[in-house]
Write the structure tokens for this entry.
Amino acid sequence: MRVSRTIFGLALLCVACGEMGKEPSTLLAPQVLGARATPRTVSYGSVVTLEAITYGVDTLDWYVCFAPYIPDGDPQCATAPDVDELSLGSGNSVELSIPEKSTFDAFGVDIPGVYVRIVATGAEGQQIAVATIPFDQVGPHPELIAFTDADGEDAPAEVIADEDFSLKPTLNLPDDMGDVLVTWFVEGGEADPFRTKNDKPVTIRAAPEAGTMRVIAVVRDGNFGIGWSESSFSVVTP
């Protein structure tokens, strides 16, 4: 079984604008593309829902650690074996109950957040990802609610195999959020560039074969806020 390991926060994967290119926009199964806690404000004693956007994943298993994971081979909870990670269950979303602060005070620790390990398993192999959920974030997550063409009109439902077309994200952002980055993923095709800023359009190269092609975009605000949207396109041969 092929295993890949990804270390990421629930926020921005920083990249300079000059480094934005075509890769790695092609979707590879199994893949965790983004994860978040809802509501975004997480604190001692709170209950949040953890959810993820994935591709080619049959089973998604969640674990939590109240200390950072050590990225040495398979990520290990830093407090193991004395206090090991906890299993949260399986599925695209799970619930996480964070203990009251007094529980941590009893052990003489003060943590800035919680740490989540996600194991995505599919027919093509397995991916292991680690996410950080910091406490006391405020405001809503950024939202990516639709795709249009570059002129703001309806996105095409049908595209030509191995040809380019443009998509533009429709975003819903708080007034004080500032700039966001959108990362693009294409099934069987590619995006150029694979990251865009705010609502800038992207060029999508359609898959070379006729069929259905899935496009997923993930928006991050750089402060552990994240949202996503996806759409399917019919690829036809000329």
